[in-house]
Amino acid sequence: MPMYKQIVWEIKNKIEKGHFHFNDKLPSINNLSAGYNLSRDTVEKAYTLLNKEGVVESVKRRGYFVKNANPISKVQIMLLFDQLSDNKRAVYNSIIEELKEVADVYLYVYQADIDTFNKLIIENLHRYHYYMVVPHFRNEERKLVKRALQILPKEKLILLDRKLDYYDNCLGNIYQDFENDVYETLQENISLVNKYKKLTLVFPEGSPFTYPEGILSGFVKLCKANGIKYEVISEINEQFAIVKGEAIITIEDNDLVKAIKQLKLTDFKLGEDFGILSYNDRPLKEVLYEGISVITANFVEMGKEAARMIKEKKGSLTRNSFMLIRRNSF
Predict the structure, then answer these.
(1) Contacts for 67-70 with beta carbons within 8 Å, 24 or more apart?
(2) Element holding 80 (H helix, E strand)
(3) pLDDT tens digits for range 243-285
(4) Residue 111 sits in which domain range?
(5) Is residue 208 part of a domain?
(6) Cα–Cα 20 to 30 A to 33, which of 17, 45, 97, 159?
């Protein structure tokens, strides 16, 4: 067997056995020729054949990387969510779809518990090639979060959904800018907002799943900038009154359902006499009460961007898109 074919076989064998994985950089032509005491031409011929067969790819000025092989060589990804909501499922499904040919994705959920978060990271250290983490915690827990994240190799860590001011040492970060997302999106649709004489934000307190303060500050910023009468409450209860000409913004589905139930006790028309705007989209909101208007991040896009970072081996700090989807209720 010619020497260049022996090199081809050996590299394929190492990929099969898991010594090299998808996206791993292979030894340079110079290093390989020196290690085997071969000419550069022989090694280059081997890499050319591997490239032609689709096993490796050549990246200009960077070298050769594993492109494809059997499932053993697929890149292994740990995906760590705070909860498995509809929005997180959209992110997960998007990542799976984009990486289905080249990666195995393993999903873990820490249920907004810092001890579970730490335990999962420690138990899975060095088991994966990449770690995608959604770090939703209270401010008082940020030191613990930072300590846990620092355990992970920074070049293998991608943060999703949240931008941590106290931790930016990672490969990539696709984040929501909660305050500006709310403010800018509603400002762009101020003519719809101005249909109502008062806005009420239902911002939950005491939930095990924390909601970013930026949602609240963005809402207040909008109302003050436009002279809008507003109120912030923690929940919709029996004392909450549906008032003609007003509107509410709900975050939790439980409050959305309560508002609709109370609205049904009146003769008001939703979207005209009373408005409802919900935070974050989900399939049910498309059909509930002829359609609930939402302000929402594009979670499919978030998953695609995370997958792109892995496929291109290049991270970035990326603000995820946010939009208002107008339906019947607002």
Answers:
(1) 67/22, 68/22, 68/101, 68/102, 69/12, 69/15, 69/16, 69/22, 70/15, 70/16
(2) strand 75-81
(3) 999 999 999 999 999 999 999 999 999 999 999 999 999 999 9
(4) 74-176+299-322
(5) yes
(6) 17
